[in-house]
Write the structure tokens for this entry.
Amino acid sequence: MVDGVVFINGRPNEIQEKRKYVSDGKEVIELEEKLTSIKRIKILEFKNFDYPETRTLEKQMIPENEYFLLGDNRDNSYDSRFIGTIKRQDIIGKAIYTYWGKTTGRININLRAE
């Protein structure tokens, strides 16, 4: 990863800016990142980053049957850059829905009734 651009096998992922807006007083850029010829994801980039040191990472090999996970709110996600790779056997499901609130207060809250 160099200045927020993810490289896989030496190739940068294609990123396209979709729109800019302000959320909770923070300037946000919504981007679309091309993962494969048919798979694209949305990511958010904040003008002021919480962790600017995580926008560039050293090249690394991901062990077989492990995954390096990045959050969609990449500049403010507590993901594999902090906790390391995730073993395949520790992945218990696939997300099929996501909640997109109008505020950043939705981050790191438990949405399940217990």
Summary: The first strand starts at residue 7 and ends at 8.
